[in-house]
Design goal:
The protein is of the alpha+beta class. Strand 17 and strand 18 form a beta hairpin. The protein has 15 helices and 23 strands. A seven-stranded mixed beta sheet has the order 17-18-16-15-21-22-23, sandwiched between helices. A six-stranded mixed beta sheet has the order 3-2-1-5-14-13, sandwiched between helices. Helix 9 crosses helix 14, helix 10 crosses helix 11 and helix 10 packs antiparallel against helix 12.
């Protein structure tokens, strides 16, 4: 127990930067958040302002701390949006270009060229990841290949690069520490999952200088001291850092075999613990769930969905709704089903299990009587159907019938969506009682490093049982609707095949 001392959890996401203050029982005693914008300057490009990422995180942390003394903060924990790339000047600490979002598809042609060279088997065997613009390496390569000055400066060792947690650690320590944890490193496509080090062959394939990259560390342990000029009156140790999806899995199922969780955000991630890395599945990615100093690396299988909550927001904006998300949810709830309408939100391609960067969004099944409400319902349905696509792949990989799905993220507050998800899966859905589970999971890993907790069972915040949603839909109706979804996906993939002259598969 920590008495009056706290862990400050910084959760930096795609659309918000959140800060939570947790006490010795793992209960949240204070929270704050700041919105964060994205920009799409060209089709397929998605960017963010790295300085704004830091400013929003700093503002949320200051508000969360309130008037508490920094001496009462025992540690900082970080969870973050993954794969987004920040490139900055090593001397000044200033970003040299916009941050390239995980959603960005600008490197699709580059990825296609690597596949055409037959390099995908090598990359997958080393990283557990198929070649796709989602992952950080191709984004870094694009930045260097499209600006000769950046390439020259990178070769001279003048620049630093990292995913968002590296950027936050650099800012918190005022440039004293350039580090990443193994969970985030495993998403860059530059880490060898077996050696747990940056791989020279991969660096050569993507033409990335090693000097750009951060040092590697376990997810749980000391990264460095947050410096006084940030928002503390004294140095505070940074004791954990890991990707947001990994942190949510830790909070759900720290060490629990065959547990599958889905984190619902702008995109969604399904993750299941695994005993070792695997390059066998082309539907799923092999990744590092987290790493501790005492227990080493814990592996996982993951399926990434590019647009779920983002699809709902896009559709609401497309329909001209004043509050795109809230109004679309109300509109969707006004009809019992989408009838024959299916919406495949492949505006940024399709992730797992299809891995098509060239797929495009489509709406199919429109009839004379179709209304805005039916399209709104189809957008909500698309979230549940995409999750089922990945859930089915995980069942095949596990070789067992999965009976339940742990769920977290902002969209899980929608009870209708959670019931729909159970109906679409034909399995129970267990919704976390904790809204900010990624931040809590990061705090858990910091507490483990400090010896405060051994697992989620020690944290009062996670002792409330999850709400359980059981499937109610008739099995025949469920499978008929899912067959309609699969046909709609084929239409979205058809664009990929026409444009690429092949399957478009990563």
């Amino acid at each position: 127990m920590m008495g009056d001392q706290y862990i400050l959890a910084l959760d930096q996401g795609t659309t918000n930067s959140k800060a939570l203050l947790l006490d010795g029982d793992g209960a949240v005693v204070s929270r704050a958040s700041r919105p964060l914008a994205t920009c799409s300057p060209r089709p397929g490009f998605v960017e963010q302002d790295a300085d704004e990422i830091w400013a929003s995180m700093e503002a949320a942390a200051k508000e969360c701390l309130g008037g508490r003394r920094s001496e009462d903060v025992r540690a900082i924990a970080i969870s973050n949006q993954r794969e987004t790339v920040v490139l900055w000047d090593a001397a000044s600490g200033r970003p040299v270009c916009p941050a390239v979002s995980w959603q960005c598809r600008r490197s699709n042609d580059f990825c296609e060229s690597l596949r055409a060279q037959g390099l995908e088997p090598t990359v997958r065997a080393k990283t557990g990841l198929g070649i796709d613009p989602l992952f950080s390496a191709s984004k870094i390569a694009w930045l260097l290949d499209n600006d000769s000055d950046l390439r020259a400066r990178a070769e001279r060792g003048e620049l630093r690069c990292g995913t968002v947690e590296s950027w936050l650690i650099w800012k918190l320590t005022e440039g004293r520490v350039h580090a990443t944890d193994l969970s985030n490193a495993s998403r860059t496509q530059l880490l060898n999952l077996r050696t747990l080090d940056w791989d020279d062959d991969l660096l050569a394939i993507f033409r990335i200088p090693r000097s750009l990259l951060p040092s590697l560390a376990p997810s749980s342990g000391l990264f460095g001291q947050a410096a006084t000029r940030s928002f503390f009156g004294c140095d505070v140790p940074i004791m954990s850092a890991l990707g947001d999806s990994h942190a949510a899995l830790a909070a759900h199922a720290f060490g629990r075999a065959n547990a599958v969780k889905a984190t619902y955000g702008t995109g969604s991630s399904l993750m299941m613990l695994a005993s070792a890395p695997s390059g066998e599945s082309h539907d799923l990615s092999s990744t590092i769930a987290w790493a501790t100093r005492s227990g080493g690396a814990q592996y996982a299988l993951e399926g990434n969905i590019t647009m779920t909550g983002g699809a709902v927001e896009w559709c609401g904006s497309f329909l001209g709704l004043a509050d795109p998300v809230a109004d679309l949810v109300r509109l969707a709830d006004s009809v019992p089903s989408s009838e024959s309408v299916f919406f495949v939100p492949a505006m940024c391609g399709l992730g797992s299990p299809y891995w098509s960067g060239s797929a495009r969004g489509c709406i199919v099944g429109l009839e004379r009587g179709s209304t805005m409400a039916h399209l709104a319902r189809a957008a909500i349905d698309s979230v549940a159907y995409q999750v089922r696509d990945v859930y089915e792949s995980m069942q095949r990989a596990a070789g067992i019938r999965l009976k339940e799905l742990y769920a977290d993220g902002g969209a899980t507050r929608n009870r209708s969506l959670m019931q729909l998800q159970a109906d679409v899966l034909g399995s129970a859905v267990l919704r976390s009682s904790t809204a900010e589970l990624s931040a809590v999971g990061a705090a858990l890993l910091a507490g483990v490093a400090l010896g405060i907790w051994s697992g989620p069972g020690d944290m009062a915040a996670l002792k409330s049982p999850p709400e359980r949603f059981e499937p109610r839909l008739d099995a025949a109706v469920r499978e008929e609707r899912y067959a309609g979804w699969k046909s709609a996906v084929e239409a979205a993939l058809g664009h990929s095949r026409r444009s690429a002259g092949g399957s478009g598969r990563a």
